[in-house]
Design a protein that fits this description.
This protein has three domains: 1-74; 77-179, DNA polymerase, domain 1; 195-230. The protein is built from seven helices and no strands. The chain has helices at 2-74, 77-90, 95-114, 126-138, 149-168, 195-205, 213-230. Helix 2 (77-90) packs antiparallel against helix 3 (95-114), helix 3 (95-114) packs across helix 5 (149-168) and helix 6 (195-205) crosses helix 7. The longest helix is centred in the N-terminal third of the chain and has 73 residues, at 2-74. The chain is rod-shaped. The termini are far apart. 10% of the residues are buried.
Length: 231
Amino acid sequence: MNESKKSSASQEFGKATLRRRKHVAGNRAVAQRDKLDAQAQARAQQATEKAATATGKPRRGQEQQRLQASRRAGTTLARAVEDYLQDHAGGNHSDKTLEWHRTALGLLRTYLEKVRGITLVGEVDAPDISGWFAEMRTSPGSRGKPRSERTIQTYARSARAFFHWLMRREIIGSNPFDRVVFPKVGKPLIQTIDAEEFERLLLACTPTNEAGPIASARLRVGVSCALSRRG
């Protein structure tokens, strides 16, 4: 009887020990799974953050490029010219300089809009600038007379400065003035007269109370100087 009780107690103890072991093993398995799940979640979060960081920069760059392209495409000649003149006024430039830029850029804008059909600064190309140079040589100025080469060159300098300003403001991506032949000013021609005209000038300039070779020589020098200054 005692042996039977001992055997039964031993079996119960063994079962209890087995249950404890199973419980401990189960807890360890659960803890291990929780640990692996936490590690997997952390890796997934890191991968997500890394992907967001990697794709975030190009997106910001693409957005900036898109906005810049939109700004370029939408800037009109009228708006750009007005902003340019205001920039000069803010820099305390003289009224004469502002008026000169206004005249030159007004001529350019009129030509581009009416002749070339261009209203946006981003549409202006080198042939449009060259065409404007040629048009200024053939069309009369404000007084109805042909423009001098020096005047055309000065207007061209004003327009070139305007497009350099557009480049600095990043309103245009390239400068059409980099691909055109800039107007040059030729050397002034020396005016000459023949001997007969020269003698008539001497007679016309000779005072009535003077005569003789000394007076004639003095007049010759004076007329020659006057002609040289006029030429």
